[in-house]
């Protein structure tokens, strides 16, 4: 029986612990916080790559709505992208992990990776960005990151209900303001984020300015912030140390969506760790999510180079192509062709 240590109790860590336990490993999960559900960042979950429908669902999102000067709707496949309560989902995963025999140690620092790697057969770093691997070894540095600040708020968000709204800020900041409604429009996850190096970092006053601009009145229930990766790592394994989720830089860079990638990478890492096959982690991970990572990176690099007024044509090209732009080269090509045609037609 392999002994597996998981560092971090967010989505990637919980999925890693569950998968490893299901495949027979003895698993210990270390979480420095006192509450496994104490995280209120990303609450959009894409049901893909064989992942089950999550707990804590509010609704299936119908559209991604991009606002530049005009508004562009990206129609989403039905019952695929869910707006969830992240704390409810993580607590449900923790309960399942515990039922499988995972030793969950809250309010516990994992200690040095060097020591863990000698005490356990496999160590899975699910500590987020920047990772403990980077902090301890200087390995796994994410080349490009962003800061996201968010509110969990109460108010009247019914005009946005069942759609995920994102306002493109500017070419300089390469970021979004978002409103993702919850609880039949009486609550919302909202916030702002942009890439590091694009001027000053975002402030909560920027969130407040956007709410004022949109005429949204709300009461803040919770607020927080975190660093998110923009560019994935090329190397995600160092011997018996596997990096998953944000620690590995796994993010759909176009949409800043990573919950499904965190869960998928954790599931793969845990499964392989239990089967004494962690050397196959990078290969299996790339075979599973590599196309989405690659296509979203290409689209993100295009976004970085386009002048701001070009987004009036670029987002409709994405919207008409739909989610397939992330999952096939033909879908990616279709975005380019639609954008080129819109320029000719104008």
Can you put this structure into words, describing what you see?
The chain has 346 residues and is α/β, with parallel strands linked by helices. The chain folds into three domains: 3-57 and 84-141 and 232-289, FAD/NAD(P)-binding domain (3-Layer(bba) Sandwich); 145-229, 2-Layer Sandwich (Alpha-Beta Plaits); 296-345. The protein contains nine helices and 16 strands. The protein has helices at 11-22, 86-99, 113-119, 132-137, 204-214, 259-274, 281-305, 311-321, 329-345; strands spanning 3-7, 26-30, 44-46, 57-60, 63-67, 71-75, 81-84, 103-105, 122-125, 145-155, 163-168, 175-182, 187-195, 218-229, 237-238, 241-243. The strands form three sheets. A seven-stranded mixed beta sheet has the order 6-5-11-12-13-10-14. A six-stranded mixed beta sheet has the order 8-2-1-9-16-15, sandwiched between helices. A hairpin with a 2-residue loop joins strand 15 and strand 16 (241-243). Helix 1 runs parallel beside helix 6 (259-274). The longest helix is centred in the last third of the chain and has 25 residues, at 281-305. The radius of gyration is 20 Å and the shape is globular. The mean pLDDT is 91.
Distance between the termini: 64 Å
**Main sheet summary:** 7 strands, mixed
- Tally of extended strands? 16
Q: Poorly predicted ranges (pLDDT <50, ≥5 residues)?
A: none
Mean pLDDT across all residues, rounded?
Answer: 91
Helix amount: 25-40%
* Tally of helical segments: 9
CATH topology of the largest domain: FAD/NAD(P)-binding domain
* Known CATH architecture of the largest domain: 3-Layer(bba) Sandwich
Shape: globular
| Overall domain count | 3
| Name of the CATH homologous superfamily of the largest domain | FAD/NAD(P)-binding domain
What portion of the residues fall into strands of 2 or more residues?
A: 25-35%
Structural class: alpha/beta
């Amino acid at each position: 029986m392999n002994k597996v240590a998981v560092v971090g109790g967010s989505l990637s860590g919980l999925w890693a612990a569950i998968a490893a336990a299901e495949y027979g490993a003895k698993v210990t999960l270390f979480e420095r916080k006192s509450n496994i559900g104490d995280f209120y960042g990303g609450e959009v979950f894409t049901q893909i790559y064989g992942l089950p429908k999550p707990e804590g669902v509010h609704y299936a999102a119908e559209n991604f709505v991009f606002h530049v000067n005009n508004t562009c709707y990206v129609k989403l496949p039905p019952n695929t992208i869910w707006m969830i309560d992240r704390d409810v989902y993580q607590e449900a995963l923790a309960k399942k992990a515990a039922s499988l025999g995972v030793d969950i140690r809250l309010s516990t620092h994992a200690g040095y990776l060097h020591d863990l790697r000698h005490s356990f057969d496999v160590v899975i770093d699910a500590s987020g960005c920047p990772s403990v691997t980077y902090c301890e070894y200087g390995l796994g540095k994410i080349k490009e990151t962003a800061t996201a600040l968010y509110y969990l708020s109460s108010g009247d968000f019914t005009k946005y209900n069942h759609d995920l709204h994102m306002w493109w800020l500017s070419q300089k900041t390469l970021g979004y303001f978002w409103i993702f409604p919850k609880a039949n429009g009486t609550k919302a996850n909202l916030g702002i984020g942009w890439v590091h190096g694009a001027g000053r970092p975002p402030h909560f006053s920027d969130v407040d300015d956007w709410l004022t601009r949109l005429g949204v009145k709300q009461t803040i229930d919770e607020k927080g912030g975190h660093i998110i990766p923009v560019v994935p790592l090329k190397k995600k394994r160092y011997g018996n140390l596997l990096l998953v989720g944000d620690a590995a830089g796994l993010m759909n860079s176009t949409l800043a969506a990573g919950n499904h990638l965190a869960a998928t990478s954790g599931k793969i890492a845990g499964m392989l760790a239990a089967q004494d096959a962690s050397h196959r982690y990078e290969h299996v991970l790339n075979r599973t999510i590599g196309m989405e990572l690659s296509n979203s990176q290409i689209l993100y690099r295009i976004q970085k180079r386009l002048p701001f007024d070009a987004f009036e044509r670029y987002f409709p090209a994405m919207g008409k192509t739909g989610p397939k732009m992330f999952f096939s080269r033909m879908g990616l090509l279709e975005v380019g062709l639609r954008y080129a045609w819109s320029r000719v037609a104008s």
